[in-house]
Structures are given as C-alpha cells and as structure tokens.
Design brief:
It is globular, with a radius of gyration of 28 Å. 36% of the residues lie in helices and 13% in strands. With 414 residues, the protein is of the alpha/beta class. The protein has a five-stranded parallel beta sheet with strand order 5-2-6-7-8, with helices on both faces. Strands 1-9 form a two-stranded parallel sheet. A hairpin with a 5-residue loop joins strand 3 and strand 4. It contains 15 helices and nine strands. Helix 11 packs parallel to helix 12 and helix 12 crosses helix 15.
C-alpha cells in the first residue's frame, strides 16, 4: 500500500522522521476485496447447510445492521389457555435487511450482505430462511433451530452485541433459548480478536466464526513496532472522527481495509479527514488501488507473512512446506482454544488455512495434540529455514609451519 499513489499521498502528510513508521503501519493492513468477502461468507454458509445439525430444523439468516426499535420482532399480548396475559412475538416477516437508521440516508455494507443472504437462501431453499418473522420461525413442519447474524466485519463487536440484545429482549426468543429450542451464531468474513471474544461472552452464547483475523496495533508481537505505531497515532491527524477516537471505534486500532470502505475501527489517521488532514481514501478505493486489493495467491500471502515475521525459507521448498514452516515458527508453547486467532492475526492468513496446516502438522507428528512442537517438528523447521552462510574455507598447506628462528625486536631511541 505504501508504494501506491494513494499511499504515497497519505505518507506525505508526515514528517520525514515518521514516514518509515507510517509506511510500516500502512503495509501491515489486511486488505480484502468484495470478492474475498463474498467467497468467505458463501463458503461458511455452505458448510453450515451441509452439516448434520440442520436435517430437520431450518436456519434463519439476518444481516447485521442498526435498529431504532428496542425489539427485533413485534410483540403482542394474548391470553393463554388459563386466561393469563402473555407476550408473544408475531409477524410472518422479520426486520428488513436494509433500512437506514433514523436521521441517516446512508446504507452501509448490509446491502451487500443482504444480497449474499438472498443467494444462500435460493441455493439452500430447504435449509435457510431469509429474514423470517416469528411465525415462520415456529413453522409446524420445519421450525428454525438456529438464528445466524451475517456481517462482513466484526470490529469492536458492539453492533452485533446490540442486535443480539434486541433478540434477547423478545420474551418468545428467551423462552425458545431457555428450552434449548434455538441456537445463535454469528458469521463474518473478518474480525478482530477482541470482537470475537466480546460476542462469545454475550448471554445468548453464540458461536462465532470468521475467515480472516484482522491485525491490530496492539496485537503485533514486536513491542518496539507497537510503541512506534502508538506514538505515531497519538501525535498525528485528527483526535477523533466517525464516532471514534484516535485508535478507532473500540480502541484496538484495527489494521484492515476493504476495497469498498475503510471501517471506523481503524486509526483515525487512516479513515478520517479533518482540518486539512486527508484519509487514505473515502468510500470505495480509487482505481489505482485495484492491484493492491487483488486476490493474492497462497504463495504470495505466505511470502508476505514470512517477511513481516522475519522467517526466511530455505530453497526448494514446496508451497505446503513453506506454509508449514511459517505456522510452526509462529506457534509458541502449548495449544489453547483460540490460538488459531492469534496465528491468523500475525500472519494475515485465513483462520481455516492455519487450522488445516496445524491438522497436517499433527498428522505428520510435527506437533503434539497439545500444540507442542516435537523433535521431528524442530528438525523440519531447521531444514526448512535458510541457514547461516558458511564461512568460506581458504586452502592452506597441509604441512604445519613452525618458525625456526626468532628475531629480537629493534630498540626504539627516544
């Protein structure tokens, strides 16, 4: 990104001493285009549709968006068989997939997500329901067993958590959840580690999955780099913008950009313009950035991640071997739940690619089930890394030389 016209124009705003740091911040960003986002969400929904869980129960899909209402469904009072008044969610159709909030005319990425949901519902007509209301969720022949919120990016997790709160606020939904009649899930193309953690702690306990893990200013493993990025953000550009502070909404400083928008979870110096300060770009990326947002091959992605993390490959390694060396080099200590998120964040590789690589490493006995690298794994990494250059040997006489006479040093007259 720093080598592009748009990147160079953005870097010109910094002093000479700060440009190298600003360029490294720019080049650390995860860049995703619309095709990659769509492909990852389609793949996730296809895996869900093909799973065994939904053979008899259907899945309700909803696009993540902001709601003015306090409840996601309409609720009416009715009398039960005993004559007591009860609250009941009603309506055949659920909330519209796209609707600007009050006072705003802008429609965000929910329009694109709504289109993906429509495609999935048409492809899997017996599995998915497109924004259904309570009456369709109850369905006598095929009731819903799961509700999925779909989005392109989980930056802070606040908006999805708020949407889940509006589901929880419906008494009927709480009843279904308490009786284990329905589950919740969130599917995203990309997410920050903190957003994943926040949403998983929601009282609805949703499953959360994302193909890409966005790096953040705080997630870099190099303390000096993190300190230099922090100082750069604190001393340059606007103090706030688009409802966020210097480090973006949520405060993590997400390093991610889409070719159709820059989230406000990124640092303000990247996404916001104010008092003469120019953002990297506004709205969709300009045409000159088309190549930067192009789909990278796995080999290119691995090479970029290796360079960023100081891993140097030996010669004549296959693509799969380079990927394995990279992931094992990043793996430290015992395996723990969610470690793939940290690995994906540091390498900017899809989380599914990291997990597949670890599965192959386990099968090849390069790691143990607890994630420790075996002796075989260490030997594999050593053979796969470029070793230190050997000091050239200078040919000398094989016959040892011993001096036969010694000279007495000449005295120096003072």
């Amino acid at each position: 990104m720093s080598q592009t016209v748009a990147g160079a124009a953005w870097l010109d705003q910094f002093g000479f001493d700060d440009r190298t740091t600003a360029a490294s911040l720019l080049d650390a960003m995860l860049l995703l285009n619309e095709e990659q986002v769509g492909a990852s969400i389609r793949a996730a929904l296809d895996r869900i549709a093909e799973g065994q869980r939904h053979r008899k129960r259907r899945v309700a899909l909803y696009a993540e968006r902001e709601f003015d209402a306090s409840l996601i469904f309409e609720v009416q009072m009715f009398r039960d068989a005993a004559g007591r008044l009860r609250q009941r969610a009603v309506g055949y159709n659920g909330p519209p997939a796209v609707r600007p909030t009050r006072g705003r005319a802008r429609v965000g990425s929910e329009g694109f997500i709504a289109h993906l949901i429509s495609q999935a519902s048409e492809r899997w007509t017996k599995v998915f329901m497109n924004h259904p209301g309570p009456e369709r969720l109850r369905g006598k022949t095929a009731p819903a067993g799961e509700i999925i919120v779909v989005t392109d990016f989980l930056g802070s997790g606040t908006r999805v958590s708020t949407m889940l709160d509006k589901f929880w606020a419906v008494p009927t939904v709480r009843s279904w959840k308490s009786r284990d009649m329905i589950r919740f899930r969130v599917v995203a193309a990309a997410a920050t580690p903190s957003a994943l953690s926040k949403i998983r702690r929601h009282r609805l306990r949703p499953e959360v999955e994302a193909e890409w893990i966005a790096p953040t200013v705080k997630s870099t493993s190099d303390y000096r780099t993190m300190w230099s990025w922090t100082r750069l953000i604190q001393t340059n550009g606007p103090e706030e913008g688009r409802g966020a502070g210097r480090f973006g909404f949520g405060g993590d400083g997400a390093l991610i950009a889409f070719n159709y928008r820059i989230p406000n979870n990124t640092p303000a110096i990247i996404h916001h313009g104010e008092s003469g300060w120019r953002p990297l770009y506004v709205g969709a990326a300009p045409p000159e950035l088309r190549d930067v947002f192009g789909v990278r091959s796995l080999d290119q992605a691995v090479a970029s991640a290796a360079q960023s993390n100081g891993v140097v490959f030996g010669r004549e390694l296959t693509e799969e071997e380079r990927l394995t060396v990279l992931v094992l080099s990043m793996l430290k200590g015992r395996w723990y739940r969610g470690a793939e998120i940290a690995l994906a964040s540091r390498t900017s590789l899809p989380a599914s690619t990291v997990m597949d690589t670890l599965a192959r490493a386990l099968k090849s006995e390069l790691i143990t089930r607890t994630g420790r690298i075996t002796d075989k794994g260490y030997k594999f990494m050593e053979s796969g890394r470029a070793g230190e250059r050997m000091t050239p040997l200078v040919e000398t006489s094989l016959v040892p030389y011993y001096p036969e006479t010694l000279r007495i040093p000449k005295a120096r007259l003072i």
